[in-house]
Design goal:
By secondary structure, the protein is an all-alpha fold. It has helices at 18-39, 42-49, 54-78, 86-89, 93-110, 119-151, 155-183, 189-214, 218-230, 237-245, 248-279, 284-308, 311-326, 335-371, 376-405, 414-442, 447-460.
């Protein structure tokens, strides 16, 4: 397959332009936009709008997570292999193109169950549509994330690209959360379908804007082809799995990411329950408060990165500040108080979000130095699995809290409202606190090792 595909390897000598970085950042917008549209609405839509019992909603999301145990790592493994398009387009770009242009269409079908389906029919529609959506989403998003360590190679370039991506991505978080508040009407399932159509069209347009930022350079393609030529044999999926599970710093990051995802999904999905059953009004300004806080946080956290250098220590600090920022949401009563509390949460959220990509890139660099290969897609497939596992944990938490507090009997009772606050604030705070503690205990990457890894990568042209 690689015959006739040899190119002279080389290092990228020019820093990527701001336009390329902004285009790459569009992928952050697209990923968070779609994730927000699913995560904040799907449990509530199936539980309260089409009346699928919460236990079956949770069961579908658990099975979806089991699907991800196979889907994401294997997609990462197979899309890392060379194809007939590799020499011309690169190994990542064709998959990004395919997945990003199709997943928005299936997003629409998640919220389009046919009228008249019974509980079993609704359950199967939900399960099949969300699994198909995720397969297409993972096809582009895993390859998109995999490009970052190879496309942006110096610490300065990574910080700048991550900063630009964070600013654009936070807008995606906000758009995914705020857009539905202008379209959906609680108690009107058809409005959710209209919202899904808007998301699908927007996803297609965003995918087109993403393309210049993920186009692989000749040097990137050449490095990959030389790596493939040098292999005596392609490593098996299970060998790569063992390697991934054996890298302590990788597992530290994966656990941090998974616990953060549980917290973020639980908190953002809870906001619509707050709007419907506690405040009785639209949550637009509450989500806007989070957006403003996250945007305001970017220059603050960039200054901290410049001063302290270590992405690893700062992302742990961001996890702790996120946990603390959840606590006011347990007690606030008025609409404006919720807005202010979410602004405070956004200040920490912006920092965590800014640090995720460069912190993961540091870990990937260490793996590449140890193995002599760039199998980023496989490792990011494992990360994606643990990220999707968060959906199951969040679903089980919602089901358990709602069952214990009688939500199905009277969702506006004081007990049910207490349950909403538990999965809005208390549960996320506990997961974020645990995330920071686990990461600090497991992570061993020092700044000296990170800098040595970068030197070795440049020397070996990896």
């Amino acid at each position: 397959m690689l015959a006739g595909m040899r190119r002279k390897p080389g290092n990228d000598t020019r820093q990527a332009s701001l336009g390329v970085m902004a285009s790459y950042g569009t992928g952050k917008f697209l990923a968070e936009f779609l994730t927000g549209g699913i995560a904040s609405l799907v449990f509530k839509f199936y539980e309260t709008e089409v009346k699928l019992p919460a236990a079956l909603v949770a069961a579908a999301l658990i099975l979806y997570s089991v699907w991800n145990a196979v889907n994401d790592p294997i997609i990462g493994f197979f899309t890392s292999r060379p194809t007939r398009f590799t020499a011309k387009l690169g190994r990542r770009f064709p998959w990004i193109l395919l997945g990003s242009l199709t997943c928005g269409l299936v997003f629409f079908f998640v919220f389009a169950p046919p009228v008249g389906l019974g509980s079993l029919g609704l359950f199967l529609w939900f399960l099949i549509s969300i699994c198909l959506y995720d397969a297409l989403y993972s096809t582009w998003e895993l390859n998109y994330q995999s490009i970052f360590p190879d496309r942006f190679r110096s610490p300065e370039e990574r910080s700048k690209a991550a900063g630009i991506g964070t600013l654009i991505g936070v807008l995606g978080v906000a758009a995914g959360a705020v857009t539905p508040t202008f379209i959906i009407h609680y108690g009107n399932p058809a409005s959710y379908l209209t919202n899904a159509a808007v998301f699908g069209v927007a996803a297609l347009l965003l995918a087109l804007l993403l393309m210049p930022g993920v186009k692989e350079t000749p040097a990137m393609i050449a490095r990959y082809l030389e790596q493939e030529k040098a292999r005596s044999e392609a490593p098996s999926f299970f060998k790569l799995l063992r390697e991934a599970l054996g890298v302590r710093d990788f597992m530290a990051f994966i656990l941090l990411y998974c616990l953060y995802q549980v917290a973020a999904l639980s908190m953002t999905a809870s906001i619509h329950y707050v709007g419907d059953y506690i405040l009785g009004r639209s949550t637009t300004l509450i989500f806007a408060g989070m957006l403003v806080g996250a945007l305001a946080a970017v220059p603050i956290w960039l200054a901290l990165i410049k001063k302290f250098k270590s992405h690893q220590k700062l992302i742990a600090a961001a996890s702790f500040t996120l946990a603390i920022s959840c606590l006011p949401l347990l007690f606030v009563q008025s609409y404006i108080a919720f807005v202010i509390a979410m602004f405070g949460w956004g200040l920490s959220f912006g920092g965590f979000w800014l640090l995720m990509t460069p912190a993961m890139a540091d870990v990937i660099d260490e793996i590449v130095v140890k193995t002599g290969r760039r199998d980023d897609g496989v490792y990011l497939g494992f990360r994606a699995f643990f990220g999707r596992l968060a959906y199951a944990v969040q679903a089980v938490a919602f089901w358990a809290v709602h069952a214990a507090t009688g939500f199905a009997i009277n969702p506006r009772s004081s007990t049910a409202q207490l349950g909403i606050r538990l999965h809005l604030a208390a549960i996320p705070a506990l997961f974020l606190l645990l995330a920071g503690i686990v990461f600090l205990r497991m992570n061993t990457l020092t700044q000296a090792r990170i800098e040595e890894n970068r030197r070795l990568l440049a020397e070996r042209e990896l």
